[in-house]
Design brief:
206 residues, mainly beta, Immunoglobulin-like, 2 domains, five-stranded antiparallel beta sheet, five-stranded mixed beta sheet, 5% helix
Length: 206
């Protein structure tokens, strides 16, 4: 089961507007006896937004005068990312990260340098936390590298056009939500500085 299917809810003060004021785990509360589902409507920046809630959970409910809404939906709508660490029942919230990349070629060695903001690169493993993790990097969709430094290096790269793709993932190798990816195209020259070999004529069918 995905760790997102059972997710903490965040209390919101109804009279004073929506205020992040604390958490309550829906699965540990007597919803039937103390709460009623509420057809809450949400508007962010003047645009109505409908919560996407997993597992048939309600989009909102009211318990003893307090409204509860899905934390992940609220945080992402406000430009934040959320992580849930089930082993410690910990919710962490951080700004959405950005990722870009540049590439340089020296002979047959390809070096990619990453620019990461609002995200701390750390070694894989350990607890999941919003705003922390590492990079999964592919060359032409193959040869996965797990990177927690700002650079990745590929050696013995053949001549021709190539694409490096990188994705931010959490400590347990799951893509962060919402996903953040980037790619950079690069051309490796043929030995001796000539142009890369042409792919040759296309086959004909008939």
């Amino acid at each position: 089961m995905s760790r997102w299917r059972v997710f903490p809810w965040v209390a919101a003060g109804v009279a004073a507007g929506i205020v992040l004021a604390g958490t309550a785990v829906a699965a540990g509360y007597d919803i039937a006896g103390n709460c009623t589902q509420a057809p809450l409507q949400f508007v962010f920046g003047g645009q109505p937004v409908t919560p996407q809630v997993a597992g048939g959970n309600p989009a909102g409910f009211i318990c003893n005068g307090t409204s509860y809404v899905p934390l992940r939906f609220m945080a992402q709508s406000l430009g934040q990312q959320v992580a849930w660490e089930g082993s410690t029942d910990t919710v962490s919230v951080a700004p959405l990260p950005t990722l870009s990349a540049t590439a340089a070629v020296s002979g047959t060695t390809l070096t990619v340098t990453f620019s990461v903001h609002n995200f701390q690169l750390v070694a894989p493993g350990g607890a999941v936390a919003a705003g922390q993790g590492h990079l999964h990097v592919w060359l032409d969709g193959q040869g996965l590298q797990m990177v927690w430094t700002p650079t990745a290096t590929f050696t013995n790269v053949g001549p021709g056009a190539h694409t490096v793709t990188a994705e931010l993932v959490d400590a347990q190798h799951e893509p962060i939500t919402p996903g953040v990816r980037t790619s950079v195209a690069v051309t490796v020259a043929a030995a001796g500085g000539g142009a890369p070999p042409s792919p040759g004529p296309k086959p004909t069918w008939g």
